[in-house]
Write a structure and sequence with these properties.
By secondary structure, this protein is α/β, with parallel strands linked by helices. It has helices at residues 37-41, 69-82, 92-112, 126-141, 160-169, 186-192, 215-224, 244-247, 272-275, 312-325, 330-348, 376-385, 398-403, 420-435, and strands spanning 50-51, 54-55, 57-58, 120-123, 147-151, 172-176, 197-203, 228-232, 251-255, 266-270, 288-291, 296-298, 354-356, 366-371, 388-389, 391-393, 409-413.
């Protein structure tokens, strides 16, 4: 099996701006390299290991991506040559570490299309970013009778923090229902918006279906009612060009580990006009201006929201990941992933009893599926024997799976370094599972 030549991104590329809700992601002044999956694979050491006697096929990218050597070396290089705390030292290494940290902030701002690095807050990941907004913004802005709209498609990390703050403030979380095929019901969404709506929390791409809702249009509609909008970009940033200015998001969150960077580092974008609405959510060093027992004054954002010592090595790795990722022609990457996903969807259709969840609509490289008579955990275990890693379970999206009457499903998710040959190995193994007793 091979990807048809007409679908091969090496034969053509689509301009990034042909995709709605997105904007350019290449760093200004950068001339991107030609892209092939092999050019990415050569940089990722773990892809060359074996698992259970077979070459690794990593199809669990929606959970976490594998790291290029440039990222691994950047983290090791920081600890080996530049380890120092930041912002509070006058010596050379403190200045170097601070410069590195703030270069990472500037790179994130550039990658997201933010107007200023001051709009970027470093966090552990998307989950912490959502909790930060819920606590720092929501505690002072939500009250009895206020609505928080959350589509039923969302990851638990974009549901549970709102439930917690709603209970505390006596606001309510209002689920936005799905259509039969799993897309967000846009008519229901429009009907649920009202003068009571204070916040809409939605993902730019679903981690369970891979579908891409019309975020820009949904944001514009929410803004008509004076509501703020938080966009969970955890699944989008590695697959879709992102422009937070074009999206007009009030908050945008992502996790570095889903973008070829280390775990434990991520970022929250806050629209400049909204920064003043956030208050400290953690106290400590770095976020203060002056402290006495009579009165404490605080540093301006983003430092206001970054109490204590940040994950400096993680920022070094995130900076390296962004440099590595944007060194490729991202339009070619997106076209290749789209072709690979379409090829995988068609090939998996040859497996008896296999059903892929979600509509045949625009989606990122995520295929969640079931096999008749097979437990998802058993599917994953079978594939693991052949060195193929997928995810099985509820994918931290239980309401979305419940929409299909499911408690669990299997999920294969792809990245720029995956190949048609790996899809073939996946399908071959699934066919063997089907023929097994």
């Amino acid at each position: 099996m091979t990807i048809p030549e007409t679908a091969d991104p090496r034969a053509h590329s689509r301009p990034a701006d042909s995709r709605p809700d997105t904007g350019p992601a290449d760093a200004p002044g950068r001339t991107p390299d030609a892209f092939t999956p092999e050019s990415a694979r050569k940089d990722v050491p773990i892809l060359h290991r074996t698992v259970n006697g077979h070459p690794l096929v990593w199809l669990d990218n929606a959970a976490t991506t594998q790291k290029p050597r440039q990222v691994i070396e950047a983290v090791a290089g920081y600890y080996g040559t530049a380890n120092s705390n930041i912002h509070r030292g006058a010596h050379t290494m403190a200045r170097e570490a601070t410069d590195l940290y703030e270069a990472g902030r500037a790179a994130v701002a550039d990658f997201l299309g933010a107007a200023s690095p001051d709009s970027i807050v470093f966090v552990r990941g998307t989950t912490e970013a959502v909790n930060l907004v819920a606590q720092s913004w929501g505690r002072g802005r939500l009250g009895p009778g206020d609505d928080i709209l959350v589509p039923a498609l969302e990851h638990h990390s974009n549901i549970v923090p709102w439930q917690l703050i709603a209970k505390e403030t006596r606001a309510r979380v209002v689920p936005v229902p799905l259509l039969a095929d799993g897309r967000i019901d846009q008519d229901a969404y429009a009907d649920l918006l009202s003068s009571r709506t204070r916040l809409v929390a939605l993902g730019q791409a679903s981690n369970v279906l891979g579908t891409v809702p019309p975020v820009r249009e949904m944001t514009a509609l929410a803004h008509r009612y004076g509501a703020r909008v938080l966009v969970d970009g955890a699944q989008a940033v590695a697959h879709l060009p992102v422009d937070v200015t074009a999206l007009d998001a009030d908050f945008y969150a992502f996790s570095g580990h889903k973008l070829y960077a280390p775990t434990g580092i991520g970022a929250l974008y806050v629209k400049p006009g909204v920064l003043g609405e956030l208050r400290p959510w953690q106290g400590g060093g770095n976020m203060i201006d002056s402290v006495s027992f009579e009165r404490t004054t605080f540093a301006p954002a983003p430092h206001l929201l970054e109490a204590g010592t940040g994950h400096i090595a993680g920022v070094a790795g995130l900076l390296a990941a962004l440099n590595w990722f944007t060194s490729f022609d991202l339009a070619a990457v997106a076209a290749y992933e789209e072709a690979l996903t379409a090829y995988a969807r068609k090939a998996m259709g040859n497996v008896p009893g296999l059903e892929i969840l979600g509509p045949e609509a625009r989606r990122i490289a995520v295929l969640t599926f079931t096999m008749a008579g097979r437990d998802p955990a058993d599917i994953a275990s079978w594939l693991d024997r052949d060195g193929i890693a997928i995810r099985a379970g509820h994918h931290c999206a239980q309401p979305a799976l419940a929409h299909y009457g499911l408690a669990a499903a299997a999920r294969a998710s792809f990245a720029l370094y995956n190949t048609p040959e790996e899809v073939d190995r996946l399908v071959t193994s699934l066919l063997e599972l089907d023929r097994s007793a």
